[in-house]
Amino acid sequence: MHNGPADVAQNRPAHHMPDGTFVNTDGKAISKSFKDLLRWRWSRKEPAPQHFDVIQPDPDVIAKPAITQITWLGHSAFLLQVKGKNILTDPHFSKRASPLSFLGPERIVEPPMTIEELPHIDAVVISHNHYDHLDEASLTELYSRQQDNPPLFLVPLGLKEELSGYGIDQVVELDWWEFHEYEGMTLTALPVKHWSQRTFFDRNKSLWAGWLIDIEDFRIFHTGDSGYSDDFRKIGEDYPGIDLATIPIGAYDPRWFMKDAHMSPEEAVQTFIDLKAEKAIGMHWGTFILTDEEMDEPPVRLAEALREKGIEASNFPVMGHGEIYQVTHLD
Ligand code: ZN
Ligand code: ZN
Prior knowledge:
By secondary structure, the chain is an alpha/beta fold. The chain is about 20% helix and about 20% strand.
């Protein structure tokens, strides 16, 4: 199908293709061929699992946060507690990041909390449909444990149907730059450079996004997965005053295969600079083995990249599994 005047007349956004798929803001889809995938898998030396300490978050601090705080639940999953609101990002509590219970990337580090141990959740944001970010079992449990008052699930365009299929009906799906106001929160879907796929037939048929969350005067940006792109400079300009950004620092090797979809730690530092965020936390590492870098390499390279740019390490730390980061300067 060609991109003709009819599409222009219908005001089709530039990232919506006529065939129903989505592309990045540079007009391109990330589509490595199956041949490239095999080339990577065949040449691959999978890194060894490593031990990471898991901290049990203090239940009293989780139940009654004195100030704004964020708890790392592993990978891209955070519990964000701001002004009495509890928000989860990309919740994943299952054994594997895979459609199959017996095959696919296995969790190396246990979640520091169970879903049962979480406080009442007001909202859940999901960045895209890859299995390490959208976990059916976690979402259905989060929904069913609050059956009388379920969280609001926010997903990028094209994913509402997926969640409906799980029996989850309190879902809002947003296109890039759209926002939704809910119980004193404003949640905005913003472009990042990535792709989507859950089955053989659905590549890029649902959108991927970073989430900007405003609660009173606190502004957080959850990047989700992204390659480095100009999107972050624009977000930093159009949505100033980001207090805290969660930025991926893992899943980058080999570069020839991963670069488009996953930033390196050095690019994560540039993303932090572009976003003009006050603080950032490194995520998307140390939980699953998805790619070829060693599990403990991302924070080492992050620290080095921060030093090179003259940025205090305390402005862009990584967290331990289950660690609670209290955002003291804001309260
Ligand atoms: Zn992804
Ligand atoms: Zn991911």
